Amino acid sequence: MNRRVKFLTWFRVLPLAVVLLFGVISYVYSFGPSLLFKAWYPLEHEEKITEAASKYGVDPYLVAAIIRTESGWDSEAESERGALGLMQLMPETAQDIVVKGYIDGTVYSADNLRDPETNIEFGCAYLSFLLSYFNGATDKAIAAYNAGMGNVETWTQEGDALHKVIAFPETQAYLVRVNMAQSRYRELYPEAFASM
Fold first, then answer.
1. For a 10 Å CB count at each end of the chain, is N or C smaller?
2. Would you write out the chain's pLDDT as a tens digit for each of its 196 residues?
């Protein structure tokens, strides 16, 4: 009888131990990923992003997502094609933004795209131009940022959903990565751009 009581005691303790274990795991999981994800999704230049995003009417979380996806926050980054800086802008694109009147070329030079402040200014202006061109369609603007406006126009001529018609696997992956990063930045840094 005594053995039976001890045996039944373990049946009572075991469920409590399992519940306690899951409680601890849940607690760690709810706070641990934030710290881990912040290492994968760093955030820098918040003040400049806030200022430029507000000036050009773009979502600062989208700007942060593009920076992370394009350069991984490396202001010295340069692509094989010659795109420069945090937001990986082509010098010709930056100059075109000046010509279109989005940026005062006497204040910001298209020759200085490795400077984070200048790059973010041009990147936000270009993103604003793309959003305006595509009537606020964020996914089209993101795809055009990667593949060019002409490609996006060609892909969407028949009115199909963009994600179904993108012809470049790189652009498909880019669109997914930017959208995911934008959501992640919004979750991890909810107060980062509160002054907008």
1. N
2. 555 555 556 566 666 667 777 766 666 555 556 677 888 999 999 999 999 999 999 999 999 999 999 999 999 999 999 999 999 999 999 999 999 999 999 999 999 999 999 999 999 999 999 999 999 999 999 999 999 999 999 999 877 788 889 999 999 999 999 999 999 999 999 999 986 5
- The one-letter amino acid code at 36 reads L
Amino acid at the residue 98: V
Any catalytic annotation for residue 70? yes
Task: Residue 62: name the closest of 155, 177, 162, 163 by CA.
Answer: 177
Which residue's entry shows tokens 């849940």?
26
Please tell me the total number of residues recorded for the chain in this structure: 196
Q: H-helix or E-strand containing 149?
A: helix 149-155
Write down the residue that tokens 């603007």 correspond to. 141
- The DSSP letter of residue 61 is H
Among 47, 70, 78, 153, the one annotated catalytic? 70
3-class SS at 85?
coil
Are the CB atoms for 139 and 133 separated by under 8 Å?
no
Can you read off the two tokens belonging to residue 149?
């406006």
The dihedrals phi and psi of 3, each to the nearest 5 degrees, come to -65, -35
